[in-house]
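User: Round two. Same drill as before: sequence, then structure, for each protein.

Assistant: Same drill it is. First protein:
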Amino acid sequence: MASCDDTGNPTILAPHLGTTFKNVAAGSNVTLSIDWWDHLTDTDVSFSGLSPSRMALSPLDTETRVGLEQCFVDVHPDTRVWLPD
C-alpha cells in the first residue's frame, strides 16, 4: 500500500499472481476491506459504515499506470519484481 494519489487515497499493488486478482483480470468483481483502528479513541463510533471512501479497480492508461508503479516502488523498492505486466 502506498499513498500515490493527490487526495491521499491508497494505492494497492494487485499482481495477477493470486487467484483473487486473476479473477478480477478476467472480469469478476472483488470486494476489498481496509480496516484501521487508531481513530477509535478520538471519535464517536456511532457512524455509518457506508461513509468511508470507496475505491475503483479499473484499467489505467499507460502513463497513469507507469506513474503509479514508480510511486509504489519508491515507497516499497522490493516490490519492483511484483509489478503487474
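Second protein:
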Amino acid sequence: MIRENEDNHILKCRQLLHQYIVDIHVKIETERLIFIRLNQSKLRFEEYIHLRDAIVDDGNTTNIGRLMILPSSYEGSPRHMYDYAQDAIAYVRQCVRSDLFITFTCNSA
C-alpha cells in the first residue's frame, strides 16, 4: 500500500539512516557467525583433515584452541576467496585466452 502524502522519516535523516544500515548489517553478520559456531557438528566441519594433520604432526594440542571453520558461503572467509579465485582461473582457462592476468589488492580498513 503506497501512501502518497506521508513522508518516510527514516529516509529524511541521512546520518541516522546510515547508522541504522550499519547496525543492521552488523547484527546480520553476528547472527550468521553465531549460527556457524553453534552448528559446527551439523555442518560436518570436524571431518576436515587439516586439524587432524596439525594434531598428528605437532602433537601439541595446547596451541590449537577452539577451531571454527567458516564455510565458503560466508562472504569474506578464506574458502570463499579461494572459490572466487578458482572460478576466475576456470573462466580464463575455458573462455578467454589472455596475455595478462592482472590482480589488485586493497586495504579494507
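The chain has a mean pLDDT of 78.

User: Perfect.
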